[in-house]
Amino acid sequence: MQPGTELSGRWSGIRLVVEACLGRGANGAVYLVRTSSGRAALKVCNTSADAALEWAVLTEVHGAGVDAFPKPIAMDDGPTEAPFFYVMEWIDGISLRRVAERGQWSVLQAAVAHIVETLTALHGVGKAFCDVKPENILVTAPDGHRVRFVDVGGVTPFGRSVRQFTPQTDRAYFGLGSRKAEPAYDLFALVLALLSLRAGSPPADLVAADTEARRRWLTRELSRFPIPSARTVMAQVLDGRITDMRAFRAAWLCLPPQPVHRRQSPSRKGGGTANAVPHQPAGPNRTAAAPHSRGNASARTRKLRSSQWDWTEWLMWLTVASAVGVSVVAWLIVLQ
Amino acid sequence: MAERPATDKQATIRQILVITDGFSNVGEDPVAVAQEARRKGIVVNVIGVVDGGDLGRQGKQEALSIADAGGGMCRVVQPSDLSATAQMMTHQTMQMTLQQVVGRELMQAMGKQVEDLPPDDRARVAQVVDKLEDVLRLELVAAVDTSASMRDKMPMVREALRDLSLSLQAREGTSMVAIVRFPGTTDDAPFEVVSDFSPELDLGPLERIFVARGGTPTGPALRASIELFDGLAKRARPGTGVAGPESDLPDLRRDGTAP
Lengths: 336, 259
Known about the structure:
heterodimer; A: 336 residues; six-stranded antiparallel β-sheet; 8 helices; globular; B: 8 helices; disordered C terminus
């Protein structure tokens, strides 16, 4: 569908204007659309069953209080260009892949702890993501302290077989476990996804290779992972010494902060401080992450927010002061 | 996963997956056999695997016709996409079969198609189908072309089958997989059963399977696959004279759409 295409839903009457295509996958395409209540993401599916199932999972997960995935807005049928679709919250963020491409390994290191937390929340309602890959994870805070997931299509109740997977993040492909949906499947996938940030897709000849050769490739890639201190923790997951999310998170948070990378992508003209986000332990004090000067758009939003806060704080003190002043005057009058 | 015998009560999905790189030139017409399979409630999927080049018009046409007659899907792919395609097809045709059953029930009960339901009801139906897909018993025969031209593609085929069996083992329901190769090892054998139905794919015979030589008897291989299903049904219910998948599963696929 071209930008500017207008469509409306048969059941709910929802009206949408297509702004851009955000991506295409095996079972449909995602568009950025404008609705009467703002921007949203539109998923157009090839079959009514695909749309219905994804919608069911999205509403179920959201209903259970997990806000990792986009908030569901409406499911409907449209004209022939979009016969079966659903509308959900549009998440404005940077994919983990882009974060790595920009060389922001410190942001990445911080994001991983939050990915683990977000996955743990999903596991809390008995479901595994089963499609943990860099493209499906959006970092929505510039310092990496908030992440969201997109593409609910893989989410599977524990105990069932994994419905859709990508070889490079599938532990069974490497002969490292089953293809059953369980927390450990997601943990493996997370580590494999991190490895794929540098390695990309496994080379084509690996498709015909046995699992032994695939694991050798994995070991080689692990030794080249750009955060040296993280390699040990990742290796522990791959060889089965760390099997649960909590243990992984604890080990990950113990990693020393990632040193500042001087390497900058050409589009970024900020000084050396651009990547100087120290690794903050995720926890109650994570909001205390000092607002560093950063050159990208989201950082600007953040700065804007902090100046707004300053303004309201100033107003609050003014109000308090004037209230005190008024009371003092009132008491003076009463006492006279 | 322990093998449970198939009983009349347990609905079973039956599929044949043909992996080939050409068109048949030995024995009976594979399209006719595929049609017969479909009548027995067995879906036939075909993957045409090409290496850089093309399957050829004739090969492509035949692959399409077999899948069409067998009520399944057909895809022509590069060897590297074999694994993903095999899984996608197995998954999608299972869903298709179930949707047909659910659709028919719905039509009988309410006179409606699934698409006529409001979105929320449709979402519930989709969840039921999704659950059924994982818990139902699946019987799958992979019929692999081992003629001379397949030689280079064999490592991919082997890994694709290994990978498919990993997915099937993860299912909640029982999955039974058998492998037939065509042609067979001896000169006069058009096919050979490499491994009969088993809950776990035995990878041993899979290593030996790949001794490529001439001729592509797709029809006889499909016939052999159907007989494997018959044999499995007979073993499950010894004593009862009635065998064959058709008596096993009156619900699935025996709808008006079958020829």
